[in-house]
Each structure stands twice: as C-alpha cells, then as structure tokens.
Amino acid sequence: MKFLQCIDLTNCKSLVKLPVGIGMLRQLRYLSLLNSGINNIPRGFSGLTNLRVLKGFPAHVEGDWCSLEELGPLNRLKSLDIRGLKNVSYSTFAIKCTSRSGGAHRLVKQEEQQQIEKVFDELCPPPCLETLAIEGYFGQRLSQWMTSTAIVSLGCLRILFMEDLPYCTELPDGLWQLPSLELLQIRNAPGIKRVGPEFLLPHHHDHPSAVEKILVTGCHGLERISNLPNLQNLVIIRCPELKVLEGLPALQKVGLEDYDMKTLPGYLKDVNPRDLLLDCDVSLLASIGKGKSSPEWDKFSHIKQVKAHADDDDNNIERKWYMKYTRDPFSFKTNISPSADASGDETEEVLLDKVEQV
C-alpha cells in the first residue's frame, strides 16, 4: 500500500471516514473525495506531500484545528478542489496558520465572514497549482493571494472554478493579471456586479488579462462584463441584470441561456461575435422567428451565425423548436410559428424548415 499512487472515492456515499494513517501514503498523487460521504479528514493528512490532484477536500473545524491547515505542506498540488467552506465560517474558533513570511505561527481569531476571509488569506496555494475549485465560500471578499501584489504565487493557475459565493461582492483586479489563467467559471454568486477589471490601465496593455473563456451562472446581480481583451468565449446563464458588455474585442462566441427573459438583452448590439447560441422560452423564440419583422432583429442580425432553441414543455422534448440564421450568405430557418402559443404549436406547420433567401 505504501506505493499506492491513485485513490478515487468519487460517489462512495457510504464511506464516511478516511483511515487515520492515510498521511503515510507518501507516493499518493491522486485523491478524489467528490460526492462521497467523507466530510472530515484526519490530522496528518499533510503527509501526502506528493499529491498532484486533490478533489472534494472537506473544510471543517475541530476545536482549535482546521482541516485547511493540512493543505500547507502540499506544495506539489496542480489541481485542488475545496468543498464546505461554510463549515469554517459558522463558528468562533482559534486557528493556527502558517504565515507566508517565514513559517512562524500566530493565533487568529475571527467570526463568521471575517473569519473565513482570514483563514483563506493564509492558505497561500502552491506555485505549481494549475486548477483550483472553490465551493461554498461565505466571505465578502476573495483572498489576498488573488490581489495584484501576490499574483506570482498563482503564476501557473490556468483554470479557476468558484461556486456558491452568497456574500462575495467583488472579484479582485489582481485576478485579471494572472498570466496563465485561461478559464474562469463562476456559479451562484448573486452579489458580484462586475466581471473584468474596472479600468483597462495603460500598463495592462503590456500584460493584458489572459482569460479566454468565462462562464457565469446564476449571478443575479451581475451588471457588466468588460475590459477583457483576450476573451473569446463567453457563456451567460440566468444573469438577468447584466446590461453591459464592452472592451471584448476578441470575442468569438456567446452562449446565452435564460428561460425567463422576455426579450433579447440590449448588450448584444455592443459586441460582434462570430456565433450566438441561445436557449430561451417558446414565446421569445416565436418573436425571433419573425425574422426581419421581429423587434429582436436589430439585436442579433449583425452576428454571423445564430442558433436559438426552445423546449416543448407539453411533450417534454428539449430544444425541439429552433431558429438558425446566417448573415452571409443570408439564410433563415425555423420550425416555429411567429404566432405560436406557449407550447410552440400552430394550426398548420407552414413554417417548418422555412428558408428565406434574398
């Protein structure tokens, strides 16, 4: 067993406890606890110093000890997924954390959101980390190691997933200066109003944000996405307050999903992607299906290719109804009537596979 390199406990919900001596597996490189029944880890976990991938790591507190302390020595990690950070924020406790300045220990006392912010500040991820997933973060601000003065510590980070940030109100500008960051995914962060740096400062032209793909889901307070010169792929799901897309000159593809929106968002006029992929409800698709006579036409007609879909809820058929548009050479196809009801049906399917040529 001492030479074991991979343990995958994904979906092992009946397994609720790791062996006390797991830290003795010095050669272990991969460990997944995702969707398992394991909600705590034993002290001494930090002995797994060869770990490269750690998924589903549970954050929890026992007296004056926090499981996050065990991550400190794991300086070879390339992929890290942390779950249950709310378990750290919901109690008052004293925690010893290794400071970034030299290995000394100090006592930190915080409560609720201030507490989790402080604990997270002390994590200081390993410099070789390439993928980081954070779930259930209850602080109002993200960690200091994401600020512009600390980006060297995350110089290899390529992929960042953040989910369930109910109180976080802003993303630090330093996040956009990470030299290797390619993909950012943010889910269920209702307090964040802006994605991208507030201003594109002169020195940022020499080292612009490297982010190429962003996915935002359930960010109900999000108002703007801006100043990301290398962004190519943008997916927006259920962000009803989003009003501004600007400073995105490299944008090639936009995905938009919202079954509650009644009209297309006006910000589509302000960008010029090659492709737009749209998932909406039947009534909006029926309006779009009117083509040049639609009030939505001016919002999407400048885009080279548009594909829109809606579900047939009555018959439980996903994405049954469609509209496909190509700007040049002009083509417009749809299988939904402009006068369709909520089910998408019409008396005679005279518009099935309609092709309009000019």
TrEMBL record:
Residues 336-358 are annotated as: Disordered. Residues 69-188 form the R13L1/DRL21-like LRR repeat region domain. This is R13L1/DRL21-like LRR repeat region domain-containing protein. It comes from Miscanthus lutarioriparius.
